[in-house]
């Protein structure tokens, strides 16, 4: 379950250590789950992203939240806890082991009523969702980001925020494709396409933040945003 990219941050290691060790830790049982996951090398969002998400959710106070990529249920629980009273999280995952772990996390935290876990392929579940969502967090297969983007934008309300994790592929997204291992070239090409779209689309406002392996914050500026795929 080790995620190699978690151990190749895109900023100086000394700064990463400072961000992870000196910023306020998550309290209570959720903090214990975070600690256990980090000790076991289970892939969850790094602490600098945790703190950033806590701050962001506190500012925008979303009520209807969608997550693509549940993993062990840590980030969905974090969002449920810090989004404010009355917030509800819908989260999607297709891996049986992650679904079991997430259900255990929710039971342990007692937050089952705040979180709806949808089991299956995101591509199959998207058409069943109507939204609108105030906040969407996408942390799934990186090669799927460009494919999932149109559906995320359809479901996001105008003025809502789409937060996308792990966009820099440990910084290699800027390298020439000839230097990328063949097994990673599809991810490389699709991440570059994703970044180009979110950085240049006239109906999106995007900020890229070097937290962990990179975070994109995208605001939808029109009621309908059309993404035209390249051939």
Automatic annotation (TrEMBL):
InterPro entries: Cation-dep_OMT, SAM-dependent_MTases_sf, SAM_O-MeTrfase, TrmR_methyltr
EC number(s) from the headed UniProt entry: 2.1.1.-
GO molecular function, one term: S-adenosylmethionine-dependent methyltransferase activity
Entries under Pfam families matching the protein: Methyltransf_3 (PF01596)
Keyword presence, Transferase: yes
Catalytic function, reaction form: 5-hydroxyuridine(34) in tRNA + S-adenosyl-L-methionine = 5-methoxyuridine(34) in tRNA + S-adenosyl-L-homocysteine + H(+)
Ligand binding (S-adenosyl-L-methionine): 45, 75, 93, 139
The entry's keywords: Methyltransferase, S-adenosyl-L-methionine, Transferase, tRNA processing
One GO BP: tRNA methylation
HAMAP family, sorted: TrmR_methyltr
Assembly and interaction partners: Homodimer.
Family the UniProt entry places it in: Belongs to the class I-like SAM-binding methyltransferase superfamily. Cation-dependent O-methyltransferase family.
Purpose: Catalyzes the methylation of 5-hydroxyuridine (ho5U) to form 5-methoxyuridine (mo5U) at position 34 in tRNAs.
Name this polypeptide is given: tRNA 5-hydroxyuridine methyltransferase
Organism whose genome encodes this protein: Enterococcus alcedinis
Name of the coding gene: trmR
